[in-house]
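Q: Structure for this?
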Amino acid sequence: MLDLDDLVSEDASRISRRCWSDPAVYAAEKKGIFGRAWLFLGHESQIPKPGDFVQAYMCETPVILARGEDGEVYASINSCTHRGLPVCRASRGNTRRFVCPYHNWSYTVSGDLVSIPQESEVNNKPDKSKLGLKPVPRLASWRGLVFGSFDADILPLPDYLGDMRFYLDALFERFPGGIEFMGEPHRWILNANWKLPVENQLGDVNHGAFLHSAIVPREAQDVIAELGYSAVTAPGHGATFRLMPEDAPAEDVAWGLEGMGGIFGGPEVQEYLREIQARAAERVGPIRARMKGLTYGIYPNLSFLWSNTSFKVSHPRGPGKVEYWSWAVVPADAPCAVKRALRTNYSSFFGPGGMLEQEDSEAWMQQYRGSAIDFADDHKYFYGLGLGEEGPHSDFPGQVSVTANEFYARNFFSRWRDDLARVAAIS
Amino acid sequence: MLDLDDLVSEDASRISRRCWSDPAVYAAEKKGIFGRAWLFLGHESQIPKPGDFVQAYMCETPVILARGEDGEVYASINSCTHRGLPVCRASRGNTRRFVCPYHNWSYTVSGDLVSIPQESEVNNKPDKSKLGLKPVPRLASWRGLVFGSFDADILPLPDYLGDMRFYLDALFERFPGGIEFMGEPHRWILNANWKLPVENQLGDVNHGAFLHSAIVPREAQDVIAELGYSAVTAPGHGATFRLMPEDAPAEDVAWGLEGMGGIFGGPEVQEYLREIQARAAERVGPIRARMKGLTYGIYPNLSFLWSNTSFKVSHPRGPGKVEYWSWAVVPADAPCAVKRALRTNYSSFFGPGGMLEQEDSEAWMQQYRGSAIDFADDHKYFYGLGLGEEGPHSDFPGQVSVTANEFYARNFFSRWRDDLARVAAIS
Amino acid sequence: MLDLDDLVSEDASRISRRCWSDPAVYAAEKKGIFGRAWLFLGHESQIPKPGDFVQAYMCETPVILARGEDGEVYASINSCTHRGLPVCRASRGNTRRFVCPYHNWSYTVSGDLVSIPQESEVNNKPDKSKLGLKPVPRLASWRGLVFGSFDADILPLPDYLGDMRFYLDALFERFPGGIEFMGEPHRWILNANWKLPVENQLGDVNHGAFLHSAIVPREAQDVIAELGYSAVTAPGHGATFRLMPEDAPAEDVAWGLEGMGGIFGGPEVQEYLREIQARAAERVGPIRARMKGLTYGIYPNLSFLWSNTSFKVSHPRGPGKVEYWSWAVVPADAPCAVKRALRTNYSSFFGPGGMLEQEDSEAWMQQYRGSAIDFADDHKYFYGLGLGEEGPHSDFPGQVSVTANEFYARNFFSRWRDDLARVAAIS
Amino acid sequence: MNGLSLAISAEQQRELERFYFFEARLLDNREYQQWLALLSPEVQYLMPARTNLMVDNRERGQESMISVERELEDAESMGCPLREETIIHLTVRVERAYKINSWSENPPARLRRLVGNIELMAEDEGALTVWSNFHLHYARPGSADYRYSGQRRDVLQREDDAFLIRRREVILDYADIELPTVGLLF
Amino acid sequence: MNGLSLAISAEQQRELERFYFFEARLLDNREYQQWLALLSPEVQYLMPARTNLMVDNRERGQESMISVERELEDAESMGCPLREETIIHLTVRVERAYKINSWSENPPARLRRLVGNIELMAEDEGALTVWSNFHLHYARPGSADYRYSGQRRDVLQREDDAFLIRRREVILDYADIELPTVGLLF
Amino acid sequence: MNGLSLAISAEQQRELERFYFFEARLLDNREYQQWLALLSPEVQYLMPARTNLMVDNRERGQESMISVERELEDAESMGCPLREETIIHLTVRVERAYKINSWSENPPARLRRLVGNIELMAEDEGALTVWSNFHLHYARPGSADYRYSGQRRDVLQREDDAFLIRRREVILDYADIELPTVGLLF
Ligand code: FES
Ligand code: FES
Ligand code: FES
Ligand SMILES: [Fe+3]
Ligand SMILES: [Fe+3]
Ligand SMILES: [Fe+3]
């Protein structure tokens, strides 16, 4: 039995190292967090045509996200009903059937079992309708973002996302065609706990000028201090952003212009971005038109980078291992050349080759090392910065505060603790 | 406490992934399966002379199989009584003594402690007769195949093998000198559970034309469908084979001719093989003379390939790791050149470099991945093909059926479940 | 619950393999042994100036050993109070501040938190005085050897060392300036249990002529048999040494002359060493002047090599993994050239490149393999050599005997068993 | 590009190897400022992403079915390469290396590469297309060792008696990235 | 064979290296059909098994005591080599590679080898005995990376201005095989 | 030492590579007695220890800040090199190898090294300063495989038409030593 109050203090301002390192905690997280949340699977732009599929994960469970013959989206667990092999071995593709290597049972992209070669030689034919791949119990999408859940009774996705939609639309709705994911996610393995990358992008923008000071100028931090906000729409979710002054020139406000691709992408790119910003107010309203997002987080393990135009998912692989995925995100209606330029807003700084991410990765791996230390249980981590200093805001939904306020993390861990408590109660 | 009925259903037609992946199951298997079975150690042809020894394993426990000065076969656990180092470091050889590296206690090949260099300097000399290597409690051999058991009360080896002897003799008895193992086993490590290779060779010949379809022609499968049988002499044991028509030309029936060595080995090899087949009926009787074995399995972890002339043992190294051993087997009385040719019947397709084994290895590793999947406990593996379609046969001992019938695996897991239940009961 | 009497017999003459391999034993050792002992951290000669620091470990816990601005020695756990990252990344150095990479909280070398960059942006400033690095509860040094303990109530260091001081001073006191550690420790990882290297140097000098017979001549063993002693000042501590005859020429008695550096170091080195020996009697008395130490051990995991002039610590990294550290030790007042020559008395034979250590490392790794063997619990290790043959000695404190007597190890494991029992009792 | 490398003389091959061994030494010794001087200001530095595509049965029997090309998401693709860099990126990376707060490499990691299989694939008025393989041993303090394996497809441009790197495409041989970063200088 | 390699000229050495780098590229790029064309129809392709024999104290003091030869179970031995193949085996392996159901390599694994220490040990009317070392990086999707290390003892036969591989013995440097297969083309 | 290696001819480079490939073969084949004959009786065989020092902010912006030199505890330092050996040490090591009780290598381990990036850095009346890199695959029976990576800084002395090794400094590329021994012959 986990002593949850010892792991996370009442107000979540002091937290035990074991939250990131204890195998028992990890086992509880699987049930209590990943068994009961909406988990991000992918974006519909990755599977436009019937037969298209991509691989995904829900915690450690491999999932096939596919567009069925009927044009609907399906998600099935990637494991043959016969002896369990993954039936889909490619990271993406288009196919009519998934053929299991071992005995060639074959399945439709939507997971139905259609053939058992061996059955011709036995009298009693198995009932194939009962032997398809296990479907993900719940599946839903919003703005093309597809989520799945192991919990059949989970609340509807829109309610789950709640006011995070307000912050996501601040970007998505600027583009007539919405957004698109470019190619496959970059995937890499880190010796860190899954929550570290999550916390980082949930609201910890204040590490920027410090961890990244070899690259990020101190001024960036000053701007954030001056114009930055941190919002928590519901415990576990969060958004950080800058609200540019009303008189700020469009160049300073426009999404994309401040990145490598924006700066060096040439006139076509800049023209496109100015154009988008010019229409921003009418599309997302005057306030959100002045918003420049920083990082977002959606409980439990989805993150979004605004300027660096990327979605990221932190897939647990054990207490001390994470498989981190990130996708470059671009406006769906931009010309190919513009899309190519804008993806470098992401890849120059983030992803496994990114100039910033190399420091983040190391920091997370180092925190895991620190979290595995013995003889320090009486010396818990300090999550108390800005305790109680958040509050409502006239223009922005949720609790709002300065970015230095760690309330985003306290809220995350309160929800996390309560989720684990619920499991403990039933099991 | 393991919920065995949840792991293996009553009729063993649905089986939980956890049987291959749960560390608690593995711990129980050590006691319940490997602590109470006859385990294959090697073949007497490997240790013809006094002082000869080879290494072996019983589950994870390293064992020395040796021919003592007295010409008898001995098996001892390879761990010094002083501080535990393996006293035998070579994979095979001939020696008078095993000298432990650390303090040079020395032992005979049969495991008796004969010298403690340090004792000269103390007054009370240790009683060496009590400090030999731990002998394997039970040791027995049949047709040169040597088995050991940790269970002093286990039933005699012949009874344990039971009617599998009928099927093994169908090959062994064709050769006046019986069989011989060539050199050392090939050993390799796979990230798979030990039972997967076992099931594969216990009776799963129907994966051949599917997993191996890049190499094995569909026709091979048709022949098996037409002439193939699967027999279970006792739960956990099994034999699959073809019974060739009475009028089949000797070329089609003869052992060895259909392999690479048989086809390309030249006249001397073919002559030898025809000769053997010509005498087969008088040696093993008319029915067995028409038998062409496929794969055999002896509970818990010994396998035999007939055409590909190999013995294999699946040594557990944890839930997800196996050390797989295989030996080329040839007729003891064949000329050296013939033996060399025939070993390629094995090595061309099996062993770590084999053209077929590379697909099997991957399949087993992939099944382990599938077996470690969470959130799918309600979606068990299907072992139901041909349920109840087996029965007795006039010519062949045991329950017999078509090869597509998975009764061999259901029987294996019923015995497996009962063996684990017995431990659970006592512990 | 561990069955301690099954692990270690009453007189500690038979010991179970599981003491070196069972994860539950290891977990108990952390609490019962490493949580309650004085653990070696380093030598003051490594941190002469304010701001100097070196890394150290207490079991698996990383510790910073530093000389504060005030000239005092401090030891803090190397993990940021904010999110746990190690704040000190270098193995040694001199600094005013440790700056944590992630958010640049900064700490003095003595562990006090001095700045939180983010606090400027929140209203309630955290109380930094409560957020420093966790200090090691107890810290003490003797002859420059610094030890720390997690047990605030542990007995004073001098009492803990007890009569080992007599044996250590036999060398230290020969040098007017005492001893000095040269540079950084050599660190390497072995797949062995932490106790194996400890036992080896606690008193097992009799492996020398056997494990190392490719290098060490049999005569060396004869000399030890003739002049050697093994002393146990208190269970867990031990010293082995030769007492040279009164008429032995100074060359044979002098420390350092028998090593590579002594032999090939040239006249300056030899002159220096003879000089030291010439004054030995007046410095350490007639008896100890004739002492030539072999190996020492201080409970639980500190070892000392006399002729090979090295301190070693065996840092546990799990039941089957150890991070082994060793330092070259030389007289503090020797000329640089002499120090350079003498360090090869260590490095030629010990450390990761040493000609002897390569055999020891393999032996320890092999013992771990042997200790992890199943089905051999009824066949325990034999620790009975010379049982009861030790006794008091007129010239040497502690229980004394021949080096072949394994009483040093029996004493170690009796203390070890009782320490674990104490934890079992409370937890 | 296909077939044997160009039939150049041993002296010409030696000239290329001399250059690549020198470059490798600068990188192994972390002398990145000198390395930067080996780059053309117009340098394109690319690292395609590598995907695990389903093979296409319609191509069965042909080498193209499993060609390396088809699994690359490169600069021309609509996927996302791992790196698409210019002299600006590389200059920032080099400057970072000599700052105390380049945290992930402070203390610095060990680097040692073998550069081999050097082949001149084409030469066109002073532009040399050179392919080579590398295995890089990378050891970061306090973590495991890593092996980086890849091919470099370079375009060198001859500047009087020296070479400048005008284009480099690094084909990293990963299936899953179990490396702390792919942001190193290859 | 012993002593220094033959004292051939840099140009002759270059010719050998050019061939081996080309061959390596074909294998790294999975262009196995082109690779097959580099083999003589009579090619012998051998991979001895490697054993851990007790050393023989009677040979103490001599290099033969721990020679590599004595631990090999090769074609002449009465043990069982890992592979004893002809053009037929190799052709089947190559054909398999371009089928969709070569399951263990679909999607295909990454391959990258460094071929080095190339030495011409003997030359006898157009038959060149060439020894070389390789380290092969092998990364299969969804599993770890592997390093294959070995020596290749080749007999090349000169066909006008090209080489054909007439014999190849691959000495793989394993003690225990922790590799998914040793059935690759080396 | 800095800059490009000496502008020697392909033939001269070939001579060095021929020597190093021969030496590597002797070591891979455990023919240590023949290897010993390649050493000068005055040989210095050094292996510095490698430390993880805090970088010095006062050197920021300069390559020296993270130079390899500063992290070495070599023969001149007051730290402790891993190895400081003479012909006596090396002779003992070689003799040990042919005794039955060289336990940690009985049965013998597999060795295979690629020696590459061979550069002649200086030549001074018959004393050649040659730097090279190696990756050594080492597999000991019953344990995992290891990769040893390092640079060798040699001084060769020309003896009529052969070379003798007069000085060798092995820079091993470890951050933490996860190797069973660094006492091998490199
Ligand atoms: S395991 Fe999938 S078909 Fe048998
Ligand atoms: S451990 Fe075997 S003799 Fe001591
Ligand atoms: S983790 Fe150390 S400052 Fe935040
Ligand atoms: Fe960051
Ligand atoms: Fe198969
Ligand atoms: Fe020793």
